Structure formats: structure tokens, C-alpha cells
Amino acid sequence: MPDRQCNNCEYFHVDRQVQRGQCRIDPPTTVPNPRPSLDNGGKTDSLVLSRWPVVNASDWCGEFAAKPLSTFNPKPAA
Length: 78
Fold this sequence. Notes:
Structural class: mainly beta
Number of helices: 0
Radius of gyration: 19 Å
Strand content: 25-35%
């Protein structure tokens, strides 16, 4: 299914790495991010973050939408 891989999907957003990125078909989800608190005697506080799922460029799913064929303006013919 190479044609329907995430790297060919309209919702795939490359994030600093060529082989990985974010799937942006849905809004980001909230995830807890526990962190030690210096003000709380070393106990763990929870900070909530919002993130899109990270996927591999070669992954695929049933929500695939092909990228537009042309997303740039070619040079006009002279």
C-alpha cells in the first residue's frame, strides 16, 4: 500500500524528521505530562499538553486523503 502511506497524505505534517511527522486529521488530544515540582517537595505535578499523534511516514490508515497534485506555481511558458 505504498501509495496510501502517511507521507502521501494531505493530513501528514513533517516534524523535523523526514521519516516521522504528525497526523493532523483530527484536533490535537490532551495528554498528561508528569513533571517533578520543586515547590512541592519533589512530588509530581501534572502538566497537560495538547499534541497530534506522531506517525511514521510509511504508516497508513483508513482516513487517507491524497495530497493535491500541484501545490506550487510552475513558471509560465515564455
